[in-house]
Design brief:
By secondary structure, the chain is an alpha/beta fold. It has 2 domains: about 190 residues, Alpha-Beta Complex (2-enoyl-CoA Hydratase, Chain A, domain 1), CATH 3.90.226; about 45 residues. It is built from 10 helices and 10 strands. A hairpin with a 2-residue loop joins strand 1 and strand 2. Helix 1 packs parallel to helix 2. The radius of gyration is 19 Å and the shape is globular. The model has no long low-confidence stretch (mean pLDDT about 95).
Length: about 260
């Protein structure tokens, strides 16, 4: 399906959503919000897709909201966030497959929230994440207050938010926000290599591990232990489990259908 503001490509069980408003540093207008909602919903419900990559065209990942847009259907900012942004960001967070943010440049404002909503991040060396809101007397949105605090802790998250400081790719790597940092020229190839490697792994293991670890952030040890036991009981002896065991015994790569 074609979109006005993004491209959606699928290859080797990996879907790639590329935000395509490079002249606006991939800032979000209303059409981009709707396109992201539709595309993430399609990927979420397509069992043939095992990994999603989100990236931006040109120099930026996303500069946040397009402040030059003068007409939109939202009744107010709250409506835009709850009816517009929240559905596609929730799709990403609840996606039953890993989502890789391939951060090619600036991820600012709600673009930072988008990057942080991804499960894994690979960043170009000159890329950065920035909660820019306080520069224009606003607060973080798109769930960034939750996502950034969860990732780096309250004190650091507050400092970076109220001072609108860039978190460089090097600092992102040190803090655990980024999993990998590479040269910009290598970003596409390295992202593809990583995504295709993950796509060969067990879909049920990818999906359930993501859910268990997300849920664990707000659960007690006992609640997590019980959830793991329930999940393990449900998939033990499944076709994927048996293929993994057989491949291990036969000293070959598993082929998860």
């Amino acid at each position: 399906m074609s979109y006005q503001t993004i491209s959606l490509d699928v290859e080797n069980r990996v879907a790639t959503i590329t935000i395509n408003r490079p002249k606006m540093m991939n800032a979000f207008n209303e059409q981009l919000i709707w396109d992201m909602g539709d595309a993430t919903e399609k990927v979420k419900n397509d069992s043939q897709i095992r990994v999603l990559v989100i990236t931006g065209e040109g120099r930026g990942f996303s500069a946040g909201a397009d402040l030059t847009e003068r007409e939109a259907s939202w009744s107010d900012t709250k409506d835009a966030l709850l009816r517009g942004y929240h559905p596609f960001l929730k799709n990403i967070i609840e996606m039953p497959k890993p989502v890789i943010g391939s951060v090619n440049g600036a991820a600012a404002g709600i673009g930072a929230a988008l990057a942080m909503a991804c499960d894994l991040r690979i960043m170009a060396k000159d890329a950065y994440i920035m909660s820019v809101f306080s520069n224009i007397a606003l607060v973080p949105d798109g769930g960034l207050s939750f996502l950034l605090t969860r990732a780096i802790g309250y004190a650091r998250a507050l400092e970076y938010a109220i001072e609108a400081k860039k978190i460089s790719s090097a600092d992102c790597l040190t803090m655990g926000i980024a999993n990998k940092v590479v040269e910009l020229d290598d970003l596409t190839a390295e992202t593809k290599k990583w995504a295709e490697h993950l796509a060969k792994r067990s879909p049920q293991a990818l999906s359930l591990t993501k859910k268990l670890m997300n849920d664990a952030l707000t659960q007690t040890y006992d609640e997590t232990f019980k959830a793991e036991a329930e999940a393990q009981n449900n998939i033990f002896g499944s076709a994927e489990n048996m293929e993994g065991v057989t491949a291990f015994l036969e000293k070959r790569e598993p082929d998860f259908k």
